[in-house]
Amino acid sequence: MLDLLSQPWPWYVAGPLIGLIVPMLLLLDGKCFGISENLRHFCAAILPARVELFRYDWRGEAWNLAVAAGILLGGFVAATWLADPNGTIVISAATRADLSALGIADFTGPAPREFFGWPSLTTPTGAILVLAGGFLVGFGSRYAGGCTSGHAISGLADLQRPSLIAVLGFFAGGLFVTHFILPIVFAL
Predict the structure, then answer these.
(1) Confidence (pLDDT) at 175
(2) CA atoms within 13 Å, Cβ hemisphere of 110
(3) 22 lies in a domain?
(4) Rounded CA separation 184/188 (Å)
(5) Could you give the C-alpha distances from 73 to 66, 80, 86, in angstroms and in order?
(6) What value does the mean pLDDT take over residues 159-176?
(7) d(CA 95, CA 97)
(8) How many CB atoms lie within 10 A of CB 140?
(9) Which residue, among 45, 47, 77, has the nearest Cα to 62 in the 3D structure?
């Protein structure tokens, strides 16, 4: 059993499992899965009634906070006890070549250290990636009424047309940024 947890599951196993869990939650309990709303729940629990946006009964969404805590705990367990001891991220040779062409040479961590390590945060490129990217993700998830996982998993499972439109926009935007914007940012 521990051997199953020490290696990544193939996409054709993990994907359907994720895809089946959310509709089951919707059918069995009427709960809609979403992570981006948890910041609001957390703030409502800590700053009760001081800000109008946080004046609601957040306790009804405590289960969603538990899911977010489980994600953090699972990430910690995976990074601490289930990670490859050599620190190598397994990616295809073609992807490695494409990333090398963009100036990324260190493949020993979960993200390229050339752009996401602590020293790179003081560079203009690092500041753009973290500050502008963080703002756009936060603003976009509030403007779209949910984050990518909420729309792609819960919204599509609930057959919501706005979620389908949002997911199509996420993919189109991701392809545009990957092929046109990132090469410009990485060239800075």
Answers:
(1) 92
(2) 7
(3) yes
(4) 7
(5) 10, 10, 22
(6) 89
(7) 5
(8) 17
(9) 45
In a domain, 149, yes or no: no
Residue 176: pLDDT band with limits 50, 70, 90: very high
Q: Work out the burial of residue 104: count CB atoms within 10 Å of its CB; fewer than 13 is exposed, 13-18 middle, 19 or more buried.
A: middle
For residue 68, being part of any structural domain is answered with: yes
Q: How many domains is the chain partitioned into structurally?
A: 1
Nearest-angstrom CA–CA distance, 54 and 40: 7
Q: Is the pTM of this model over 0.85?
A: no
What count of residues does the chain have? 188
Q: What is the distance between the alpha carbons of residues 43 and 32, in angstroms, rounded to a whole number?
A: 20
126 in a structural domain: no
What is the domain extent for residue 45?
1-83
d(CA 160, CA 166): 10
Chain-centroid distance, C-alpha 92: 21
